Amino acid sequence: MSLQLAKRLMTEPDKRLLWKFAWNFGWKGMRAVNAFEKRRAKGVYFPAFLFLSVTNACNLRCQGCWVTPTQPPCELDLATLENIIRSSKAQGSYFFGILGGEPLLHKGLFDLMGRHPDCYFLLFTNGTLITDVVAARLHELGNVSPLISLEGLEAVSDERRGGRAVYQRTLEGVAHCRDHRLMTGVATSVCQSNFRELVSERFLRDLIGRGVLYVWYYIYRPVGAQPCPELKLTPDQIVELRRFMVEMRTRLPIIIVDAYWDDEGRALCPAATGIGHHISPSGYVEPCPPLQLAGEHVGDGTDLYERLTNSAFLREFRHAAAETTRGCVIMERPDVLLQLAEKTGARDSSGRGTVKAEMGCLSPCSSHHLPGREIREASWPYRFAKKHWFFGFGAYG
Ligand code: SF4
Asked: Which residue from 132, 198, 257, 301 has the highest number of Cβ atoms inside 10 Å of its Cβ?
């Protein structure tokens, strides 16, 4: 299977884009993790990967989305983004996940990416705004991979995305990416209504046929103003998802990404390890995108390194999360997060002003930490990669 995947990688994307991916993301990503490890050994936490929600504007209204659009939209301005990127590069971190809202609504984003050809940007997008012109621009930039969210097949997807023909418009975006030979990925948030459609070999084979090179599976988190708890997965479904990914990694020529399990199948939380954190559209530093609590803000001109490494909230979060569970503390123990907010004085960074009340209403549920049900990676390249670059980073003792 590795050979077929290698053949796809060598023949489908543009060679220049593949090289950018391999060098800026692969090689520099490894070095960023090594630099993170060295800092961590000294008790200094600056993430290897940063996730930036550049705007809260969006052209869709999806079920369970935690981002609340405002009028006018709230955006990270270009000066702030420059400051973040330069500070990160100074620490050896060259990878940025770009989220929204819909990040393609942020004017100036492409120019920013073009000013940093030594970085790699993963563009989390609903894909509906990827026209032929946009795909051509992404090709020209070379250092961006569109990660397009698909939330099910047509009927379920349109219901989840809150609009008609969203599925078709998304697939048109995927087609434009293929036409321009981009490093294209698909992200899916697996929930009750789309589980059978998305956790299936047929779905992955369809993506392969559309020129998609990697797929990133998420587990639906019932958070936000309208959390839809009825959509959350059962523990058996989470194990089934894990088993499916492990098996498909050995069989299908598509890269399958998850940010939940290490090489031995033990759960971990990237935010608890400190490997990645998130900056909201309003400039608040959050542990991760769905956790809208913050102690710090980036907009006052203070160097990002100082902000992050001296953040009492992030430090306390990492300890509390790792002591509570190897899984997702939001899902398993929202009460711990409320206590933490109380203790550290962390503020609601959602713009809604209701996050603490929302958390108080969340019913604890299972996440990906299911002791005794671990499933080891069966594919050696994944086992190798996770063993060296995606593990607990000492967070769990
Ligand atoms: S707290 Fe939950 S959603 Fe956030 S990084 Fe950890 S596992 Fe993921």
From this structure: 198
